[in-house]
Amino acid sequence: MNRIYCQKCIYYYVTWDQKKPHGCNAYGFKSQAIPSLVVKRSSGMECSFFQLKNNK
Question: Domain residues of the chain, as ranges?
Fold first, then answer.
């Protein structure tokens, strides 16, 4: 099992909310924890929307 790095995903964004600094546009939520961890804890499954950013 490989770890999902949300910061490398096209759907990840940083919010202005200090209490919920991590956001995921694919799932549509903000959280205090990294979104892939929230998805794993709540559903028991790995994130299915992860797509690597095209950083040139």
Answer: 6-43
